[in-house]
Amino acid sequence: HRNVNKVMMNGKENTRYSRSVHILEKRGGRWQVVSDVGHPMPGGMFTAWNTDMDAIQAFKRRDVDWFERHTTPDFISIGPTGQVGNKAQLLDAIKNPQAKIDRVQLSEVSLRGQDDTVVISGIDHIKGQSPDGKPIDNKVRFTRTYVKKDDTWQLLSSHSTLLNND
Fold first, then answer.
1. Phi, psi angle pair for 60, to nearest 5°
2. Coil/strand/helix, residue 5
3. What burial class does residue 83 get, using C-beta atoms within 10 Å of its C-beta: 0-12 exposed, 13-18 middle, 19+ buried?
4. Residue from 142, 76, 159, 48 nearest 104 by CA
5. Which residues, in sequence order, are CB contacts of 3 under 8 Å at separation 6+?
6. What one-character-per-residue DSSP string does 99-144 give?
7. Which residue among 3, 4, 68, 163 is the one 20 to 30 A from 57 at the CA level?
8. CA dist., res. 49 & res. 153, Å (int)
9. CA dist list (Å): 161 to 98, 142, 165
10. How confident is the model at residue 4 (pLDDT cuts 50, 70, 90)?
11. pLDDT 10s digits, 32-68
12. Within 13 Å of residue 12, how many CA atoms lie on the same side as its CB?
């Protein structure tokens, strides 16, 4: 699992990420941790990846403030049917009480990075409800681009293409 720790450094909140693996054995009819391994996740790619994972949770919580901080002012999105959106429209979608995400399952994830830019691509299987209240159960191939600004990874752009859901 991934661990997220918030610490204060020089008067600023700093988020640190790590990964842990726990080894369990069944002893006396009970599962017990018998070993674990953990390590920090250094580097921009992993921090951007964690920001992307946090974005999914922030959308589920309708955390508009999170998206204010982690989306560039010139953010642009291209949705599965070709619609183009901006930051204001993203924030409105998060506020919409009918739009909700119940579950997101990721697959075929790929990360590429250079300096202060990271591109994450893969497939999202999204279940929930659209802004107009209709149930959704879609698979989309996505590409999300993050840039590092003032020690914070921010979403610059997002593109998704609807896949055949057969």
1. -60, -35
2. strand
3. exposed
4. 142
5. 17, 18, 19, 20, 38
6. -EEEEEEEEEEEEEEETTEEEEEEEEEEEEE-TTS-EEEEEEEEEE
7. 163
8. 9
9. 22, 6, 12
10. low
11. 777 766 655 545 677 888 889 899 889 888 899 999 9
12. 7
Q: Which residue has the tokens 């681009």?
A: 145
Both tokens of residue 161?
Answer: 């293409």
The token pair at 117 is 């830019």
Global pTM value: 0.73
**Tokens of residue 46, six digits:** 């992993």
Amino acid at 16: R
User: DSSP secondary structure string, 11-22?
Assistant: TEEEEEEEEEEE
